[in-house]
Amino acid sequence: MVATDPHANATAAKPSGPGLLGQLIRFGLIGGFCALVDFGVYQGLRALGMDATPWVDVARAISFVAGTTTAFFLNRKFTFAGGRQGGAGQIGGFIALYTVTFFVAVGMNRWMLHLLPESVWKTTLGWVVSQATATVINFVMLKWVVFREKTEEN
């Protein structure tokens, strides 16, 4: 049978990414790995003496950049189909998104270190809250803005 619609084969041949559940699972697994990178760098820098203000904020900033950069490239490749179609616009979107989430993560970490009572878990709990906040923002913005899949309308 011969197709009369010239777009029928192009649409059928276009690789489709995982659905929302698949994206959430992949994002979670990649995010878990990248959180380990982030937390490991943070704890390593603190162990090297960056444990007091303002150095703890610098350590959090460096760890955020390390984890986030790793997450961008892994999610682009494995989670979001739109990431495989990208170009310079994705890099610009990534930079804008992660500039915002950078300040959210570092600011939330600072706020948690101010609010939480003194304990051995204070810095870890502050990091977890800041990481969770940034993660939610990142998934939403990566899926629907940075790596959105091209459709006939866009």
UniProtKB/TrEMBL annotation:
Query: What's any GO biological process attached to this entry?
Result: polysaccharide biosynthetic process
- Extract one GO cellular component term from the record: plasma membrane
Classification via InterPro entries: GtrA_CellWall_Glycosyl, GtrA_DPMS_TM
Q: Which residues cross the membrane?
A: 24-42, 54-74, 95-113, 125-146
The reply to whether Protease figures as a keyword in the UniProt entry is no
Q: Where is the GtrA/DPMS transmembrane domain?
A: 26-147
Membrane topology of the entry: Multi-pass membrane protein
Q: Which UniProt keywords apply?
A: Membrane, Transmembrane, Transmembrane helix
Q: Does the keyword Transmembrane apply?
A: yes
Q: Where in the cell is it found?
A: Membrane
Offer one Pfam family short name for this entry. Answer: GtrA_DPMS_TM
Task: Give the protein family.
Answer: Belongs to the GtrA family.
Q: What is this protein called?
A: Putative flippase GtrA (Transmembrane translocase of bactoprenol-linked glucose)
The source organism is Amycolatopsis xylanica
